[in-house]
Amino acid sequence: MLLEGKTVLVTGASAGIGRAVAIGCARHGADVALNFARDVAGAESAVAEIEALGRKGIAIQGDVADPATAKDFVSRATEALGRVDVFVNNAGICPFHAFLDMPVETFERTMQVNLHGAYFMVQAAANQMVKQGDGGSIIAMSSISALVGGEYQTHYTPTKAGLHSLMQSVAIALGKYGIRCNSLFPGTILTDINKEDLADQGKRTYMEGRIPLGRLGQPDDLVGPTVFLASDLSNYVTGASLLVDGGAYVNLQ
Prior knowledge:
- The protein has 253 residues and is α/β, with parallel strands linked by helices.
- The protein is built from seven helices and seven strands; from the N terminus they run E-H-E-H-E-H-E-H-E-H-E-H-H-E.
- Strands 3-2-1-4-5-6-7 form a seven-stranded parallel beta sheet, with helices on both faces.
- It is globular and about 50 Å long.
């Protein structure tokens, strides 16, 4: 129960990593507010699982690409749950596409969701934490893609590098308020974002073969690292990043 008494907000939490993290935090004692864009059934079932654990849960719909969504989410979550102790920026998209004919709208939408949305969400959560006056923890779900390139991810990798950079800067800006800001770098995690890409069995086998731990990641693999950064166990950790990739990044030979 590392998060007992804490309130956690998670964006993009109706499925995948966000859902796993939201439920995982509840398992450790937190009340949880979920942001989601379209999947009403997924969000409602996640809230049901949170409540089944004896915790409070609320799902609030909103497109993070709209800056107004950030203030709305934090305000409604605070009204329902009382405060914000932990904010997890997870919402993101990755519509795979080649570089030379990248549609402007695909590039801009990816930037708006992944980077612009994160900026305003983090800002809104930080303002609430500052108002409360007793610190907090902000966690950005960046990616191994912040550190390496991807042929069909030229619009995506800059957003993940930007998220990590944002956490470094806000760690400095918010340290005086006792607010810690850190990044997680997931490797290849089996979620809807890469479902089509990994439907190619040859590619999946290749990816698995590059990972020292011998398997692709599952959303639940991000729960432990998130709970650590959210909890008082990491009280002196800020501006840091943690790879959660099964060892893929270091396997260069």
